[in-house]
Amino acid sequence: xxxxxxxxxxxIREEVARQLAExxxxxxxxxxxxxxxxxxxxxxRLGVQPKRLYEWRRLRxxxxxxxxxxxxxxxxxxxxEWINRPRSGDDVLTLHEAAEYTRRxxxxxxxxxxxxxxxxxxxxxxATWRVRRExxxxxxxxxxxGRRGPLQAL
Length: 154
Prior knowledge:
- There is one protein chain.
- By secondary structure, the chain is α+β, with helices and mostly antiparallel strands.
- It is built from seven helices and six strands.
- A hairpin with a 6-residue loop joins strand 5 and strand 6 (129-132).
- The protein is elongated, with a radius of gyration of 30 Å.
């Protein structure tokens, strides 16, 4: 009888422990701190030069950054969100950004704006031109920027 009683008690303990485990709320996942990337690492992830990130930071137009002491750091999760953010259709580019986008010389883009071939705006007289990306696409004939040269037709 003692063996039967002890076996019954062990079975009851196991069942009670199992049901208690089911009733307890799940343990929260361990708090994962996002990886902090340096300027060079973030630039490599974005596919740009580090000096471009410094310029974007100065103009307050790139991915959000933070300072750790004297160092500029980028959180990996915030950087991924910035990369995957929805882009608005009316991005306004500076003259040099427009030239880089079209793979043309900045003077060519400025001359097209002055001649009225390309819709652009100036905030003040002799200020740099601002051009919408959509207008650049129209000016280029809806061709995406690509290679120029003999292989362009291929």
